[in-house]
Amino acid sequence: MRIVVAGGDGFCGWPTALHLSNQGHEVTIVDNLSRRKWDEELHSNSVTPIASLEDRVEKWKELTGNEIKTFIGDLNHYDFLREVFRQTEPEAFVHFAEQRSAPYSMIDREHAVFTQQNNVIGNLNVLYAIKELAPDCHLIKLGTMGEYGAPNIDIEEGYIEIEHNGRKDVLPYPKQPGSFYHLSKVHDSHNIMFACKIWGIRATDLNQGIVYGLHTNETKMDPMLVNRVDYDGVFGTALNRFLIQAATGHDLTVYGSGKQTRSFLNIEDTVRCVQIAAENPADKGEFRVFNQFTEYFSVLELAEKVKKIAQEKGLDTELAYLENPRIEPEDHYYHAVNTGLRELGLEPHLLTDEVLHDILQTVIEHKDRVIKENVLPSITWK
Ligand code: NAD
Ligand code: USQ
């Protein structure tokens, strides 16, 4: 298939582009390289040293003979996006290209406005480009489990049957997101659902949990292909942050009681979920929703797991309970359904001690790159 991966220079997008290319698909990456610029803005970096996008795709071609075309530009620039569609004629458009940090979106008004403009308008442009230039193209959009929040009932995949005053309907599952970033994903979901209804677009919203790990079979093929890994208080995410903190002798930063529960998946499963979605497209006019995660844990459970593994490696790791910089429920019910992707063949890579050892070993090798001042959280929701 001809597949565009927007955001293909990022943490999820790069390994996904390689994986799809390795499966024989004709892959094109679109990215404006803004994630690298946000590192400059925050005086931060990836723990792993990452090559330029140009060098990455050149190395990939040298190793496999597969060409990945690249377009450097912004989804918010519609003329640019149209040109991408004209030249690539995509059968699937995988959309990772958004500002994805909740804390970044909560810095101040400018960052909240930027996040929603970048994400919501970029996605709306993609919908219009599909309508105008590739009406049969399947949109595979990365949403997030955080769109649902933490309701006191089970979380279904996108829809819920409701009975009210003696009548029944299947309705979009209620959304209670916890940051201006998470809200941008809710707005995207609504726009996509509407576009499917009025224009007959086919779309899959992948409500993804928190992704951990860094390597996939493809990124391991050469140091030039290594994936980025974030650890700072803005872009770093829970489990990866704890592993990097353990590697550098920092206490593990549990926010509040740590009882807040989230869903997780290994980056190796992200790339397979996208492949499964691409190879099993939604029907025309269908707005299909999958919850893309394999397991859920409380933050405290993860910190305890990392502490145990770190101590086995002789590291002196302890937990630090910090005042929670976010406004979020800490003690709550959590049960979410994730059958859609499993039914289409996903075989999860679960979070075993071996997996934790492996990631910890890699980050230990690069620990000197960690800028210690960036580890503690600096942004609050208040
Ligand atoms: P990332 O920041 O590493 O990658 C995003 C990429 O998109 C970057 O390379 C960036 O330069 C590019 N980009 C951003 N805005 C763009 C624009 N307007 N035009 C062109 N390119 C643009 O993020 P990630 O961790 O790879 O996340 C990818 C997607 O998956 C996001 O949509 C995110 O919301 C979703 N997601 C991520 C996680 C996670 O744990 N990382 C979990 C759930 C969902
Ligand atoms: N947390 C800690 N300590 C830390 C970092 C985080 O206790 O050092 C807690 C947070 O308070 C929160 C939970 O861990 O309760 C998750 O925080 P996170 O930063 O790992 O993840 P989040 O902000 O939700 O965002 C990440 C990605 C985002 C994606 C989302 C998936 O950055 O792009 O959408 O995970 S989900 O959480 O399912 O919505």
UniProtKB/TrEMBL annotation:
InterPro entries, alphabetized: Epimerase_deHydtase, NAD(P)-bd_dom_sf
Domain NAD-dependent epimerase/dehydratase, chain residue ranges per copy: 3-291
Family annotation (PANTHER family): DTDP-D-GLUCOSE 4,6-DEHYDRATASE-RELATED
Recorded family membership: Belongs to the NAD(P)-dependent epimerase/dehydratase family.
Name of the protein in its database record: UDP-sulfoquinovose synthase
